[in-house]
TrEMBL record:
Name assigned to this protein: DJ-1/PfpI family protein
Gene3D superfamilies tied to this protein: 3.40.50.880
Family classification: Belongs to the peptidase C56 family.
Alphabetical list of Pfam families matching this protein: DJ-1_PfpI
Coiled-coil stretches noted in the UniProt entry, renumbered to this chain: none
Domain spans labelled DJ-1/PfpI: 4-178
Length: 188
């Protein structure tokens, strides 16, 4: 049986940051499940840049069904967790079920992949203190407040924690995450 990977997300997650790791990890042979606050069809978004804007814009993206609710997740059944960005982490960090799930991954030193605004979730469970991370550059102060050393790089690996800035960094992010994942939970 293939190791299971959990993706935790919700409405307004960045479409590419959910679907790229979902497909890439399945291609690698992992059994990937998407968890959200409830079992429902999630509405993802697309963030992009427009000339003259000081920040990114947001447009509706793909929809995708959540396989299970956070309350149904048994973290011990999963080899790793992926935390996409977008706006979803802003409100998901307040979910006590999700915080319990993420804490279990950090307590067990299982691989964690986070990207963009995803580190807001790991900060909420004190998973960044003393670690090196990257995130969407606007979160530099948030990462420092969480006790992390922020690095503006495509991908930062700190033990089993693999972080990236945003979807343009996908190739480097997944390459490094798969290196960690294969060492901890290879597909056999």
């Amino acid at each position: 049986m293939a190791p299971k990977i959990l993706i935790v997300t919700g409405d307004a997650a960045e479409s590419l940051e959910v679907l790229y790791p979902y497909q890439r990890l399945r291609e690698e042979g992992y059994d990937v499940h998407i968890a959200a606050p409830t079992r429902k069809r999630l509405q993802f978004v697309v963030h992009d840049f427009e000339p003259g804007f000081d920040t990114y814009t947001e447009k509706p993206g793909y929809t995708w069904p959540a396989d299970l609710a956070f309350s149904e997740v048994e973290a011990g059944q999963y080899a790793a967790v992926v935390i996409p960005g977008g706006r979803a982490p802003e409100y998901l960090r307040n979910d006590p079920e999700l915080r319990k799930i993420l804490k279990a991954f950090f307590d067990s030193d299982k691989p964690v992949a986070q990207i963009c605004h995803g580190p807001l979730l790991t900060a909420a469970v004190d998973g960044l203190a003393g670690r090196r991370v990257t995130a969407y550059p606007a979160l530099e102060l948030d990462m420092q407040s969480a006790g992390a050393t922020f690095q503006d790089a495509e991908t930062v690996v700190d033990g089993t924690l693999v972080s990236a800035r945003a979807w343009p960094d996908h190739p480097s992010w997944m390459r490094e995450f798969l290196t960690v994942l294969r060492a901890k939970s290879p597909v056999t």
